[in-house]
């Protein structure tokens, strides 16, 4: 079954696609749909839905998702036409760390590793 909203979680650096249908606000009737991902302290990611008949197809490219920090992101899908805007769906998505990124230790992690090593000796 195809996704009808953003996945509950996906890895940064992966692409993600879903198709949303809003029967009263059809893409065929010139409604425009936008999904916005946001979290405090980070730049928002705006994804425009592409009309496919009456449906909206949303695609997050690997380069766009790679720019997302790991953690919980809020999302909302809105449709707009002329002077009317309607929020159609909201939710959360967990962005998991990009598996291709080599993680570096923070100063605190390095100190903890060295302390543990010293204690074990």
How would you describe the overall organization of this protein?
This protein is α+β, with helices and mostly antiparallel strands. Helices cover about 15% and strands about 45% of the residues. The protein is built from two helices and eight strands, in the order ββββββαββα. The chain has helices at about 60-65, 105-120, and strands at about 10, 15-20, 30-40, 45-50, 50, 55-60, 70-80, 85-95. The strands form two sheets. A five-stranded mixed β-sheet has the order 1-8-7-3-4. A three-stranded antiparallel β-sheet has the order 2-6-5. A hairpin with a 2-residue loop joins strand 7 (about 70-80) and strand 8. The radius of gyration is 19 Å and the shape is elongated. The mean pLDDT is about 95.
Please sum up the structure shown.
This protein is α+β, with helices and mostly antiparallel strands and 121 residues long. It has 2 helices and 8 strands.
Overall pLDDT confidence:
93
Beta-strand portion reads 35-45%
Helix content: 10-25%
N-to-C series of helices and strands: EEEEEEHEEH
Q: Structural class of the secondary structure composition?
A: alpha+beta
Number of strands: 8
Number of helices: 2
Spatial sequence of strands, sheet with the most strands: 1-8-7-3-4
Poorly predicted ranges: none
The end-to-end span amounts to: 55 Å
Shape: elongated
Radius of gyration, whole Å: 19 Å
Main sheet: strands, sense, barrel: 5 strands, mixed
